[in-house]
Amino acid sequence: MQYQVFGPLYAPVRQGEVTGASLRDFWDRVEAMHAGLPRAVGIYVFSTSHGDSYTPWYVGKTNAKAGFRGEIFQGHKLDHYLSAAERKRGVPRMHLIAKVEPNRGNFCRPSARSGREIDELETVMIAMALRSNPDVRNSKKTWFNKTCQVPGIMGDPPIGRPSEAITSLRNAFRL
Description:
alpha+beta, 6 helices
């Protein structure tokens, strides 16, 4: 399994910016920068940036034949992101994490195997986004990460000085 990260890309998602023409222009610019990327499969992350600081708001996946282009700006996903972009000051940004073939480096086509891998990666990346921003807009795959408590690792931080067990486990995980 190999993936390549692209971005940050300016996502036209402010009210009034999202039109058929602006979305075609967006995908045309992405295609010009990275041939084949709009039809690639993988993970996408909507964020807002303020200077060099990014806040993730939504993590999604695609293994559809149309790739990122056919998935990212669907209505309910766009609604999540419009709402988040309006609540948080900053510039709307997007990262695309495309699945690539390890030997040739070209973008992978959708398949059952890719779908399983991309689904697993989405779960991990949602957990990472939640760690950075507890208000991530995803509703699926968040319950476990929002409710599981492992002191010093997941959930609320321990009160007071962490025990040696917590400190050494954090060290083992390089946290």
